[in-house]
Give the backbone structure.
Amino acid sequence: GVDCGGDSRMCCRQEFFVDFKEIGWEDWIIQPEGYHMNYCAGLCPLHMAGAPGLAASFHTAVLNRIKAASAAAAVDSCCVPTQRRPLSLLYYDRDSNIVKTDIPDMIVDACGCT
Amino acid sequence: AAKGGGCPACGVASLAPGAQRDALLALAKQSILAKLRLPARPSAPRPPARGALLTALRRMRAQRSDAAASPGMMLRDGTGLQEYEILSFAEAGSSTPHSVRLHFRFSQEVAGSTEILQATLYLFWAAPSPGAQPVTVRLLQPDPEGPNMTVASEIRLEVQRSGWTTLDIGAAVRSLFGQDIPRFTVELEVPEDWGSPLPSERSDSHWPFVVAQARARTPHRVHRR
């Protein structure tokens, strides 16, 4: 995947860190100190649709070839997460119990065109 | 805000940088609370005493390494479902010279959306006199029909000396998680000459606690033919 930087307009991963102290949540979230709420942004022109190695199942790849072949059906593909990981949280619940949980697919590690 | 229910972050790119940051922070809060099934952030918590917390974490680690060593260790099948580990410290309830009640409470959000895999009660005995002493541990649950409590289970122990005891209370907590108010009470009854079975202060590092492992319930899959 590509990280956004400078004036890149193509599909890339935009880093965005949420500091729990900045939003006043550091009293009930024990660990970690923040959340990498990265997201995908940028253009996915036709020629990038389904390029090998991106998020494409066989079905998507065939569909993209058909799109690329028939300009009339030319539609952009989307810039989506291609790799994600869980967010591990240790926090106090409403009864001050200590709860540890891993929320799946909360952190985007890479983006790509469908 | 995204028009027509599009992806939540779609409309953010067109905002001014300051507003964009605020929108993303709001989105992060909303996303975390939604995944924790919390309607809002919990109010200011009452953290446990440091000594009690450190002791509990040490006991949990010891228990986990014992479990890892035992051949019959329950291997968690990789279901990919979200799992929770909950550490709940007792709240002291009513007491008499030789019995005491301890209250444990679980949050609605976790109890309502998970199934209990395992639950262990940790009790510390400061046995004053040598020799085996009979102790009764009762698990009481609120009676759905009225203000009383029903005995969910009763265990008799022979306490030989001071130290920690662990009791598997998985079945009782499992039945409890299906109820509206996920809380239960532990009643400890000790011989007359023992005095209170509890440490004097909640800040004492021998305060009773429960450790529960839970897993998100599998979403009901409707099979259409």
Summary: Helices of chain A lie at 58-69.
